[in-house]
Specification:
By secondary structure, the protein is mainly alpha-helical. Helix content is 65%, strand content 1%. It is built from 18 helices and 2 strands. Strands 1-2 form a two-stranded antiparallel sheet. A hairpin with a 2-residue loop joins β1 and β2. The longest helix has 29 residues. The protein is globular.
Length: 477
């Protein structure tokens, strides 16, 4: 493995972070805030360590699979370490464990927080907090598609469950085009949502911060009560629309805009994803209404937002779901497990894998009836490779095993069952809120430091895909 390649690429990662840290510093500086020095020093430290490798390490054109995978994994870890610097320097609620938790949660677009008083943070820090979402949301896609080349025809680990033509491109030779597509969609969605939110009454600062969090499917808000603080149904509708768009494969969005064959209206996967969200909304709405919690329209309003928010792994909130009927909580937990589509900014299990899983169930039922038959799983007219089916099953088992093991570890720390279980699922799914003490209007501050550290491992596993971590361990061996 060529270490100079890894060091040089990690320098670019640090420089990217230093740019956003400097913008955060400027906001804090012009507003005369207490976070000015913390953000300035963080930007300088990040910039200096980022520029040294670019100056002193020779440039190398070829990046192999091993180097690419190492760059991706260590890039995320170093980014999270750098991200905690301004929190630590500013102080207040940010102990070492809390600063690490908030940084990892931000970059992995999980959106879980340890903050009790979000609105007490200076605007410079609030912007940096939201910027970690935006960097992380586009970062994982760009790093994987741009840096990880295919090795002898093998599919790239992170996108081995992708079905669309965009994901099947040869990333080594099509990387520039892919990056352009992703950047266009990502930036365009952010700008359009920002303008829409401002037209509905949000300040520019709140609008850009919430757009960062929405398009990255993150969930950090500038308000203690999240989106509920605005109490504006227009704002909620706009955010719901953009949460759904951000949870769909970006290649399909691009294909729709460019009137290509592969688009949202022709994709059975995308249509099924939206249909499942609709069914979830309907079930939660009816239960809330029939239980006397709210009237029908209020039930529909709250159910729509919460199902879409968790189903796209965004994690915004308009109501405290901790007080909802257990039936609705179980449905919401399902969406926390399901997550959104591959090729979006969502982390976690991915809806694609569940789609393939249910296709496999149908295939197995046919084989029981016709033992000698040969059956092939398809959707959108494309054959699902048997290796992909096997990979999907293994990943689902690993994924479920991880959050069950995490639940056991947390309950060993005397954390109650609902809090431990939902926190485990919410963090590996990069969703954010759970239930119990970590519900939509709660936070993770009450958990012990060791518990917070365990959950940050979950966040990274969910964002980087479990196989990436295992593959890196095998490389090191």
């Amino acid at each position: 493995m060529k270490k100079e390649i890894i060091i040089k690429q990690l320098g670019f990662v640090l420089l990217l972070n230093s740019v956003f840290l400097f913008i955060s510093f400027l906001i804090s500086f012009f507003l005369h805030e207490t976070s000015t020095i913390a953000l300035l020093f963080s930007a300088l430290i990040c910039g200096i360590f980022g520029i040294f490798p670019l100056i002193f390490v020779e440039r190398t054109e070829h990046i192999g699979f091993d180097e690419g995978l190492t760059i991706v994994v260590f890039g995320w870890i170093i980014t999270c370490i750098v991200g905690m610097l301004p929190y630590l320097m500013w102080g207040s609620e940010f102990t070492l464990a809390n600063a690490w938790f908030e940084s990892v949660s931000g970059f992995t677009t999980t959106g879980s927080t340890i903050l009790n008083e979000i609105e007490s943070l200076p605007k410079g820090l609030l912007f940096w907090r939201s910027a970690t979402h935006w960097i992380g949301g586009i970062g994982i896609i760009l790093f994987v598609l741009l840096i990880l080349p295919q090795s002898k025809g093998q599919q790239i680990t992170v996108y081995n469950t992708e079905i669309s033509s965009l994901s099947k491109m040869n990333f080594r030779f099509k990387a520039r085009k892919i990056v352009q597509i992703l950047a266009i969609v990502y930036i365009s969605l952010t700008l359009i949502e920002t303008v829409a939110l401002m037209l509905l009454g949000m300040s520019f600062f709140d609008a850009i911060n919430h757009s960062f969090a929405t398009i990255a499917t993150g969930g950090f808000s500038t308000k203690n009560l999240s989106i509920a603080a605005f109490n504006n149904i227009g704002i909620e509708i706009i955010i719901m629309i953009f949460m759904i768009l951000s949870g769909i494969h970006f290649g399909l969005i691009y294909g729709t805009i460019m009137l290509k064959k592969e688009n949202l209206f022709r994709s059975s996967l995308a249509k099924t994803f939206v249909l499942v969200l609709f069914i979830g909304i309907l079930l939660v709405s009816l239960k809330l209404n029939l239980s006397g919690k709210y009237d029908f329209w209020t039930s529909l309003r709250y159910a729509s937002f919460q199902v879409i928010s968790l189903g796209t792994t965004t994690g915004f909130a308009t109501e405290d779901t901790a007080n909802w009927p257990i039936f609705t909580q179980i449905i919401l937990i399902y969406f926390t497990i399901q997550c959104a589509m591959s090729g979006s900014t969502s982390g976690g299990l991915k809806f694609d894998r569940l789609y393939i899983f249910f296709k496999l169930i149908g295939k197995q039922l046919k084989m029981l009836k016709h033992p000698n038959g040969v059956f092939v799983s398809k959707f959108d007219g494309k054959r699902i490779d048997e290796k992909l089916e096997q990979n999907t099953l293994v990943f689902i088992v690993l994924y479920i095993s991880v959050f069950f093991i995490t639940t056991l570890i947390l309950t060993a720390m005397d954390i109650d069952g609902m809090t431990a279980f939902s926190a485990s699922i919410a963090t590996i799914g990069n969703v954010g809120p759970g239930f119990g003490n970590v519900s939509s209007f709660g936070n993770f501050s009450s958990l012990p430091d060791l518990g917070k550290f365990v959950l940050t491992i979950n966040m990274l596993l969910g964002r980087l895909e479990i196989f990436n971590i295992l593959a890196l361990i095998m490389i090191k061996k």
